[in-house]
Design goal:
Length: about 210
């Protein structure tokens, strides 16, 4: 004798829901990590060299922030845009996602341009030697500019994910419908034999003498 179970089989999530969750997690991870990597890289030594002074060769170094402040600034903008994606909807979310992607692309470009820049060390050489026309000698660069570029690429990835899947992501607050209007609040039943319930209903702007909404 066969038995039929009444327990329903769990339905699997739609594919677009799974895609939205995966893309959201990846965008948050890549955006936050990219901003942190770019900010860390700009605080490291990007280039080094020497300046000719009376006592011989004077060693000089330049951090990423000495070379250019653009990667750090754009990383902060990208981080703010990543948070703002969840505070806006529809066309606003698209615009913020574009800003996020542009912040990442700008960080990559600025870091790569700064990888071969010598102006920061030339200024330090002129200051150290007292000669405004002096330039740095034995110039060399480290790999930190490329680390900053990797951070920018991660921010760019977060922006592209927001552009592609942002419409599937939840908003910052669930109290509003998709059209931006507040959801109507359901009135609580009031017991006429309890005066405190009637006062609470009045405080909420409800009519305790009206019909039961249920």
């Amino acid at each position: 004798m066969e038995y039929v179970t009444a327990v329903p089989h769990p339905r699997s999530e739609p594919a677009f829901v799974r895609s939205g969750r995966r893309s959201l997690a990846l965008a948050l991870l890549s955006g936050a990590l990219g901003a942190a990597v770019a900010l860390l890289a700009t605080r490291q030594r990007w280039s080094e060299g020497t300046a000719s002074v009376a006592g011989g060769a004077f060693p000089l170094t330049a951090k990423g922030s000495d070379v250019t402040g653009v990667p750090a600034a754009l990383a902060i903008v990208g981080l703010a845009a990543l948070v703002a994606v969840f505070a806006v909807r529809r066309s606003g979310r698209v615009l913020v996602a574009v800003l996020l992607a542009l912040s990442g692309a700008g960080t990559v470009a600025a870091a790569l341009f700064g990888a071969y820049d010598s102006s920061a060390l030339d200024d330090k050489a002129a200051e150290a030697s007292g000669d405004t026309s002096a330039t740095v000698d034995a110039l060399s660069h480290t790999g930190w500019p490329y680390v900053a570029a990797v951070g920018g690429a991660l921010i760019l990835l977060a922006g592209l994910l927001a552009l592609r899947y942002g419409r599937l992501w939840p908003g910052m607050s669930g109290r509003y419908e998709r059209d931006g209007t507040p959801r109507p609040r359901r009135a609580k039943p009031v017991d006429p034999d309890r005066p405190e319930d009637m006062w609470k209903a009045l405080d909420r702007g409800e009519d305790p003498t009206g019909p039961d909404p249920t």
